[in-house]
Design a protein that fits this description.
Number of strands: 2
Structural class: mainly alpha
Strand content: 5-15%
Strand order of the largest sheet: 1-2
Number of helices: 4
Distance between the termini: 52 Å
Order of helices and strands: HEEHHH
Shape: globular
């Protein structure tokens, strides 16, 4: 399946490897179009720590994504199916023409950020 040289590289690289937690770099730009705006990973981690302590259970992937972007994790009411969450997302995805029209309305109103 592998050539001899590829098998040697694969074998040598995996035998000495250790598993460890992945860490995010300190500053990751939002995109190539916004090089001076950075994703705040520390705020997301802090929010998740607060929510884990409040709920006293592990979080699902969906909960990590949503709760990581809470506006005020310490005081937010968190009841599944009942609470309205106040979120501060880093960015949003627009899929259809309605969302694009809404963004164009914000741009024409002169609002620099939403």
């Amino acid at each position: 399946m592998f050539s001899r040289s590829a098998a040697r590289v694969f074998k040598s690289s995996t035998l000495g490897a250790r598993r460890s937690m992945a860490t995010a770099p300190q500053k990751v730009p939002m995109s190539i179009h916004e090089p001076n705006k950075y994703i705040n990973y520390q705020r997301i981690e802090d929010n998740l720590d607060i929510v884990r302590k409040r709920l006293n259970r592990p979080l699902t992937l969906s909960e990590k994504i949503i709760y990581g972007h809470l506006d005020n994790a310490a005081e937010q009411d968190i009841q599944r199916g009942v609470s309205y969450l106040q979120l501060r997302p880093d960015r949003v995805v627009c899929q259809d023409a309605t969302a694009q029209m809404a963004l164009l309305q914000f741009m024409s109103a002169g609002i620099p950020e939403v």
